[in-house]
Amino acid sequence: MEVAVFDTKVYDREHLLAAVSNPGLHWRFHDFRLSTETARAAEGCQAVCIFVNDRCDRDVMRILHQAGVRIVALRCAGFNNVDLDAAKELGLSVIRVPAYSPHAVAEHTVGLLLAVNRKLHRAYNRVREQNFSLQGLVGFDIAGKTVGIVGTGRIGKVTAQIFRGFDAKVIAFDEYPDRDWAERSGVEYVEREWLFRNSDILSLHVPLTDKTYHLLDATTLSWTKPGVTILNTSRGKLIDTSALIQALKSGHVGSVALDVYEEEEGVFFEDLSGKILQDDELSLLLTFPNVLLTAHQAFLTREALSEIARVTSQNLLAFQSQKEFAPGTQLV
Asked: Tens of pLDDT along 134-188?
């Protein structure tokens, strides 16, 4: 099977090549993203392998189908960038990696909190300039604070359990609560608005859907406690960036740590250090001393990359060999 792999970096190629010993799977690596302009690069391939910022809408699906592609493999858990209705109509199967390493993302989430709270990034830069002043570096204890977890899937659960290890009170909201887990873990499920109003630290762990788009907007941000710390390692469009900026400027939001951004496509995963950043809102966010951003790297551990490559390869080989994976089956 020929597989066109879009938006690849060195680490993607290394782990995908290491994961496959089967001679029936051949990778065609492309460093550019999948879009209507690049979809023809999949000509002669039976599969494409894409990542979070690749575009796989109806127009792209048509081109892929005409090119002979029969399966779309996402090397990630989220699939909001894929038009599943179009895939079904055209007879393309869609597969993903539902859980590669919840610990990788959860640990990065907590790392972001520690960094933005204790001003580690600012302290690091000061000391390198031989400035050993502690002025402006005061943080707070996590112990005794109330941490609100929005979404208790695999990543949300691990994040909650880590925060319990800090002796924090953890509350959670999920449309499908796992009350047995919550009881075992010392976590209390509450209503969403109550969680927003009572959390000192608010951490988002839900997929991007029509219901969760701009989960944090001007209204819901106004519900949050003054001085709240907001963490997002899920999807950028969970937060209305304009509303967040206003809440930061007013001082209502105390600090923000993000691994994702609403309009990250074309920016994150790229080296733009020699260019002028064209996104005014992102440029403004980067000026706030109480905002910390990383460029969608929460998944980036050896363990997670190996698991993504292993599961993606096995999915493709299973599709190739097992007759029950009929065209049009939505495996997502």
From this structure: 999 999 999 999 999 999 999 999 999 999 999 999 999 999 999 999 999 999 9
Known catalytic residue: 58? no
- In the residue annotation, 264 being an active-site residue is answered as yes
**Considering only the top CATH level, what class is 102-293?**
alpha beta
Tokens of 41: 């690069």
* Identical fold, 2-100+302-321 and 102-293: yes
* Cβ count near 77 (within 10 Å): 21
Q: Which one of 108, 154, 296, 307 is the catalytic residue? A: 296
Please give the helix or strand (H or E) that residue 181 lies within, else none. Answer: helix 179-185
Longest CA–CA separation in the chain, Å: 67
Which architecture characterizes domain 2-100+302-321 according to CATH? Answer: 3-Layer(aba) Sandwich (3.40)
How far CA 200 is from CA of 21, 141, 204, in Å, comes to 49, 11, 13
CB atoms within 10 A of CB 271: 6
φ/ψ of residue 203, rounded to 5? -125, 125
Q: Looking at 33, 70, 235, 307, which residue is catalytic?
A: 235
Catalytic residue among 15, 108, 264, 307: 264
What's the pTM value of the predicted model, to 2 decimals? 0.89
User: Residues 6 or more apart from 320 whose CB is under 8 A from it?
Assistant: 1, 24, 25, 46
Query: Is 270 annotated in the active site?
Result: no
Delimit the domains of the chain by residue range.
2-100+302-321, 102-293
